[in-house]
Amino acid sequence: MSPLIPAIASADYQLLPKFTHKFKWSMPMTNAANQINQSSILFPKMPREYPLVGYAPALLGDPISFLDSIGRLGNSHFEFSLFGKPMFVATSKDQFNECLLVKSKDFGFPDLYKNMATVIGNGITATPDGPYWKKKRLLLQPRFGQRSIESFLKHFVTIAKSNALKIKSNQATPMSVHQLAMDSALKSLFSCLFSKTFDQPNVFEDFRDISAIVGKRFWMPNFIMTSKLSPSGRRLSKHISMLDDLAYSVIDERIANKEEAPEDFLSFLLNSKEPGTENALTHEQIRDELINFIFAGYETTACLLSWALILLSRHQDYLSLARAEALRIGELNSFADFEQCKMIKAILSETLRLYPPVWVMIRQAMVDSEICGTKVKKGSNVLLSPYLLQRQESAWTNANEFNPSRFLTDGTHKAGAYYPFGHGPRHCLGNHFAMSEAIAFVFYIVRDFDIDPVAKLPAPQALITLQPPMDTKIHFHALS
Question: Whole-prediction pTM value?
């Protein structure tokens, strides 16, 4: 047995980053890679491939460096083994489009994602492809159209204004930007999903810890995801019980007071029928959808908010343009006011290009198939990284530069090379929800505060989402 296996089961790969520092990177053993190696571009040696875990230490040790190295191959694909399974890395927009849209039936919901059901249950994001998933998506999709988004706007504005008050009362010292963003995102979700706010610090701390644990275990076999051998595994088990208590308590409270129930997402679920039947959703099904939407919309949105403020702090010209727009609009009182925030939306779109919260998506070959002419065997996983694609010079002019203006002029960005919310049948249901929430968050901060530049752009941490370090701090100053 590989000496790594006990460490995996008991320590959640905590040893792997240190372990992989003993090795250096190289490119995959493909003709394209060999040609590049011979052309004086230096690619260090490939880390050792281990039985069962394959190149997992490389991917888990420093995934962003791994992706940056793959990116040097241009549009060539990359293949490696992860826990004994072949992994095909799509690196071009044509490969993305073929896998996610054109051949979406060939490349479906992966076994790897079933790990997530252990934590979030069998809601929409953890339901495999098939007729039941399609019916469930048709049931939920109207709740995230324009009409429903308009009903959420008042919640976004209320939370955004409370953020401004919090910042103003703490402006004497720098604040953790990601903590501010995570607290804001979670409050917005609680408010929109079931019209409640939770001020208990432990609720927010529990959600942050769940995210960190699941992020470390995401790539691992299911038996490791559910393992209680380590302290973090035992904490995860307690957190899952907390999620159950939270969800079932709001469901029971709503049923007891249903005559006074607001028109929120929880009421929608309680009044819905199980897809394809006339049966009401069970409490367990409602619990799963609530928890699914919290996890799908919490950390992803928080990452967008954090990176947007970090980038604005370092690009004061765009901060000034966003402030001028916010001062001109004055208040966000309607959907039309949100629609006027074109510069702020462009800033957020560019932030999503450079730092897509969902930095990686996985699909699994359901049949023997091909991606742009390359054979992919049934059962193989396909890794698609928006982070990798959206920084390619072949798809974007000055790809690594922060330039929101590219989103203000039609045709300045390459169609098909922008996937922050996924693509195809499983594209994100909550993309308009997230963007509207983010517009409100940024609007009231840039309108009311100046932001000191963050001295050094922090290195992103690639867990479940692409997040800045928690100790990245920003100093706000209230404008007179």
Answer: 0.87
